[in-house]
Each structure stands twice: as structure tokens, then as C-alpha cells.
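Problem 12. The chain below contains 199 residues. Write out its predicted structure in C-alpha cell notation.
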Amino acid sequence: MTPARYGTPSPSPRRTCWPRPGTAGNARVAKIAEFTVPEGPLPRWHDHLALWAASRRPGSRPLDRCVVDLLAPELDPVELVGRAALAQIAEIDAQDLPHEKYGRKDLPPPQAETEAGPLWSKPVARDWAEQYHRVNGPEALLSGRSAFGTDQPLGLVADHNHLTKIIADSLQDAEDRRGKSRLRPGASQHEELAAHLAW
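Solution.
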């Protein structure tokens, strides 16, 4: 098995750090029922890697054909982007980005923190940009929720609500003329019927 590379990758030249051999007896296999995600990096992860290697079933790929690499190319510091590039990827003005101090929860979680500010990987930035446009884009701003729980153009929703009220009032007036009391149940049924007729 090729030993794992770890540590913060340096732009140039790349350095590879080899951990000391792990001891399988210092690790254990977690049960799903009691598993919780650790808050920080897994301590002595090479022990867990050694346990994985020792616990493999017959017929598994030979260890010399398994590669464990903790260096993801998109996390190379040279590839990370700051606020200006995040705004560019999202195709918005940098001033329209959530404020770094007060709107941090509206920004994607950073992959690195520097004195200049947070940095993001490009895949994370692209995913955030797509989500941002879904929530704040023209389609979201020009759509409303219909009585049936669907997103429709604002004008259509407004017209439907207006027509629903006219029809519901007409149904109630017709019932009143027949001598039925307004206190009797049925108003919600009128609204439901009116909504369907208005649609």
C-alpha cells in the first residue's frame, strides 16, 4: 500500500510527508448505532488505516494496488479563491456578497482562513453560486407561492388570489340568499372550490 500523504500542501515544490507505521490494536471499528462524527481531525488516523488494512476480506484488492491520498487537488492553496473570485464565479458584484463579518452564515464554509480573509475551493464556490441564484436570482424574486403550494409568476398568483376572493364571495352571497346562515360551516369549502374555479 502506498503510504498516505498528509499535511498542508505547498504550492511549489510539493512535499510528501510519510506518517509513522500505524498499530491496528490502537484503533477500533465503530458500530453504526454508536457512531458520531468527531468535531476535529481524527487523532492517530494511521492506526485506523492499519486496522482497515488488517480487517480487509479475502478477495479484496491487494494492498499494493490501494492508494490513500489525503491531498485533494482542489484544496491546493494556489487553487483556492477569495471574496473577489467568489463574486466573479457567482456573477455578482463583490459588494453584493454577504458581509464577511455580519453575514458569514450566508457564505459557504471556507476551506482555509488567512489574514486576508476566508478562502474557498472552486467546487464549493460554484455550488454556492448556484444556490445563491436559486434563492436570490430573478426567477426567485419574480415568483410567488400559489394556493396549491407551487411557485408561479407573481402576476399569476396575484390574479388567482383576486379571482378566488371574488368567486368565494359570490358563492357565499348565493348561499345567504337561499337563507343559510353565515355561521354554518362551509366557508373553507367555498374558498377551496373558489381556488379551483379561479385556477
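Discussion. The radius of gyration is 30 Å. Students who got a different answer should revisit the alignment rule from Section 12.3.
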